[in-house]
Amino acid sequence: MEKKNIDWSNLGFGYIQTDMRFVSNYKDGAWDEGALTEDATVVISECAGVLQYAQTIFEGMKAYTTEDGHIVVFRPDLNASRMADSARRLEMPVYPEDKFVEAVVKTVEANASYVPPYGSGASLYLRPYMFGSNPVIGVKPADEYQFRVFATPVGPYFKGGVKPLTLKVSDFDRAAPCGTGHIKAGLNYAMSLHAIVTAHEEGYDENMYLDASTRTKVEETGGANFLFVTKDNKVVTPKSDSILPSITRRSLMYVAKEYLGLEVEEREVYIDEVKDFAECGLCGTAAVISPVGKIVNHGEEICFPSGMEKMGPITQKLYDTLTGIQMGRIEAPEGWIKVIC
Ligand code: PLP
Ligand code: COI
User: Fold this and answer.
1) Which of 150, 160, 229, 280 is the most exposed place for a label (fewest CB within 10 A)?
2) Same domain (yes/no): 118, 185
3) CB distance 183 to 90 below 8 Å
4) pLDDT on residue 160
5) 175 and 297 both lie in a single domain
6) Are residues 148 and 173 in the same domain?
7) How far is CA 324 from CA 164, 206, 240, 328, in A?
8) Could you list the residue range(s) of the whole structural domain that residue 297 is in?
9) 284 lines ligand 2 (CB under 6 A)
10) Is residue 162 scored above 80 in pLDDT?
């Protein structure tokens, strides 16, 4: 299979239209079989539930070319189950988890020429999503839905690649207690847009959100969970019911414990103790692990000893091991890698 003529090593995190996408419709209480299509447009009613009341959820995952030339996807079963959780919370019909994985496989196979080559640093980002498609004017869930999966080749999420980031402790909240922060609903990201634009205008790369009720505990950023490393090399991640259960973070905690023999801890992390950590990173599908060099909390600068030039040593080991597993250089735990072809 011939690869597309794309400058893989210089890709940013943007949308490039690929050849095929998967579409399935829900009507009269059932999902249809679904199929691949060349049509990249969506035509829906002006009054569709998604347009009026933001009834939409999504997932994000990546396909890679491994060292030995296979195309693989990382833990798609976990994306399927998280999307099912998101659907239940927004009163949407669950897209069956096995069908979700099948749809992802079909989309990758159909766009195999867009999967970046091994060693390019790029990957094929997959975006499964679902939305209420029929007219809804009183506030209630839609009766009809569309599930789609598209693919787009991407490079690093943050412009500087792996250069340490500067974050701002945000005065805005991302998610409320008992709200929707733990699911992947479009509305959470709409909520974060003003905060991210403001942070960028002020020269920051991202926001650190605190818990909405006390503003004392670390939650996450707009698109990634936090990992911290203590001065005695323990890996710590915030525990909260209002953050997204990141698949990357769960995988990294496993890697830290089982591959690197480090102590790991998921617990509440107070903003006041962040200054005592040795390293900080953002983890997610798009972010992989992006190191954080500095966090500014209302004028107080928290500078991590790892500095502004490179990743801290534990963050680097976590990054190398996770990407090694994803690219087939390091043996993966059972069930982590779905081989497509
Ligand atoms: N937190 C938020 C708010 C996200 O949007 C994402 C991205 O999906 C993550 C965390 C990381 O999750 P994952 O590692 O499953 O991609
Ligand atoms: C992902 O990491 O897949 C996400 O959905 C994050 C998004 C902000 C790009």
Assistant:
1) 160
2) no
3) yes
4) 67
5) yes
6) no
7) 21, 27, 29, 6
8) 165-325
9) yes
10) no
